[in-house]
Amino acid sequence: MKFIIKHEMKGRIRLHLCQNQMTVRQADLFQYYVMSLAGVTSVKVYERTGDAAIVFSGSRENLIEEIQRFSYNRSGLSELVPKNSGRQLNQEYKEKLIQKVMVRAFTRSLLPAPLRAVYTTVHALRYIVKGLRCLIKGRLEVEVLDATAISVSIFRMDFNTAGSVMFLLGIGELLEEWTHKKSVGDLARSMSLNVKKVWQNIDGTEVLTPVSQIQEGDLITVHMGNVIPLDGVVVSGEAMINQASMTGESLPVKKEKDMYVYAGTAVEEGEITLCVKKTAGDTRFERIVNMIEDSEKLKSSVEGKAATLADALVPWSLGGTALTWLLTRNVTKALSILMVDFSCALKLAMPLSVLSAMREASSHHITVKGGKFMEAVAQADTIVFDKTGTLTKAKPVVADIVPFNHMSQNELLRIAACLEEHFPHSMAKAVVSEAVKRKLTHEEMHSKVDYIVAHGIATYVGEERVIIGSQHFVFEDEKCTVPEEKKQIFDQLPSEYSHLYMAIGGELAAVICIEDPLKEEAAEVIKSLHSLGIGKIVMMTGDSDRTAKAIAEKVGVDQYYSEVLPEDKAKFVEEEKKQGRRVIMVGDGINDSPALSAADVGIAISEGAEIAREIADITVSQDELYQLVVLKQLCDRLMRRIHRNYRFVISFNLGLILLGVGGVIAPATSALLHNTSTLAVSLKSMTNMLEEKENQAV
User: What pTM does this model have?
Assistant: First the structure.
């Protein structure tokens, strides 16, 4: 790639790419490529001029060398860049805004008065038709008010006022449409699948294959706890599929041979092999966009209240206009009321506030699937935390292996890793990682593995039954025993660790001590959530009471529950809700999915089990638990902004009506001030909330 350095300073460089014209797709390809380079912190690519501004740390020479190697045809680059980046949308709406402003300037300044009158009248027909359609349907909505104001202005030969009203309405419609599509697009991109590899079934053997290489007609196998990456038809196996992300169904649906399954749905139980019908592309993105736009999840109750109030005020505005004319016989004063309505600002500002808050959340790596969930977070007074992978780090490690039979630590670890590698749980990953660290290799030595959620794993190695899991599962459910001569060792197991029990042939063979250190910020986050109005913070875990108690004391939760099952978590959430509490559930595993569904808001850790992410209403990154604090602050400020918008819209427009009826300002001035205030409050609603000073947000 040839380029010219136009300007540079320490840590920042501006380039001009030597090519005739840069397309939107090329701009995306170049931006994503540069962002993937080591040391690059931000990139802005301007496709119109072919320029790029790059902020970086590290070696300037290395950066330039990497950019020189760039090619639009670079292998694997297209897979890195989403087809719906949003750049095309932004370009389209910028051009529409510029066009509308230029047309308005031309008609106002250069078009002769007679032609301007004709143009304004023809342009008004669209608004008049909208108003008539509402009346025909028996509805008095904002379109009727707009049509009446424009019609009366034209009837009075006041074409400037009619033109100004239509211009401002048009700008408002464009901004609303642009912000809505951009916010929905940003949200859909963050919700889209990011599956890089899948298990392709080739002649009965599963091979890990990049999803980009899968073709229509290929067979892929999806195991329990994973998300189906591509649309297809089941050819073998059966599974319970959670389709909440697509259909909103709360209960899983059974899928078996010859039934169709959709990308993005999750396998709760069982496993299936499917024949791919649609390969990777933007079909999933488009489906999510439709889901968001059609789903009631997008609407919070405050948005519904705003829309209802806006329509309810239209008859009052029309009635006030008629009453003013009857009392004063002054058309100008009556028209002043008609030019001012509460509906535009109420209907525009509230959805923009919610969508912008969702967009702002996504910039903090927080994915919110609907506005009502942000409202619920703001109202929440109880948070329930899972422990493992949520309050603790996502990468627990094996601290020790205590043998209870004749086998060595490595032999026992090899068997445990052989079983655990099949399932996406943090403790399982710790066992597998330790085996890799000790360079222990193994062949599949067991029969089919059965995974009992929140309990453990059971299988056969040769003739002997091997189980691995919790103390409850091993000793109470499976009735395994501790060797008599090893009971003292068993009683003295270190309490600071979580314990994973493995039994062979009905007798305890090993206890694997797992250390799952707390996230450094956990205690501070709990304290911050308390200060933000969360009155009750609970920790629930399947670990032993001694481990749970130690963690609970360190982080400062109000209550903790140990050795709980998935149904126990969900039951606790339901009981809290019956007591009138608004509950948030935070978890990361398959065993958290029932509670995530039951809560008012389910928050999943993005690096946790895929099924948890699909069921959850909100996902946050695992890297920073502080994102929960950011989310709570954002939701609180969203509600404050919405209530502040209510107060401003009602008081400002009421003031305009009184000034108009009093003859202080003309109808054209009322229309200008009303529409300007609507645009102002809408633009303000589109700004980031967390950048505001706290005293401004109150």
Answer: 0.63
CA 561/CA 539 separation, integer angstroms: 6
Going along 203-333, which residue ranges are E strands? Answer: 205-210, 219-222, 232-242, 253-255, 260-261, 266-276
Structure tokens at 118: 């004709």
CB 184 within 8 A of CB 290: no
Reported as a single tens digit per residue, the pLDDT across 4-49 is 999 888 889 999 998 888 888 888 888 888 888 888 888 889 888 8
Mark whether 304 and 284 lie in a shared domain.
no
CA atoms of 383 and 529, how far apart (whole Å): 9
Dihedral angle, C-alpha 328, 160, 683, 375, nearest 10 °: 40
- The answer to whether residue 630 is domain-embedded is no
Q: Which of 289, 309, 331 is the last residue of a domain?
A: 289
Tell me if 631 is assigned to some domain: no
Q: How many domains does the chain have?
A: 5
Domain range for residue 401?
A: 397-515
Same domain for 182 and 306, yes or no, is yes
Give the separation between CA 135 and CA 314, rounded to whole angstroms.
12
- The residue out of 81, 112, 132 marking a domain boundary is 81
Model pLDDT for residues 365-386, shown as the tens digit of each residue? 788 877 788 889 999 999 999 8
CB 391 within 8 A of CB 498: no
Extract the runs of DSSP E, i.e. beta strands, from 47-158: 51-56
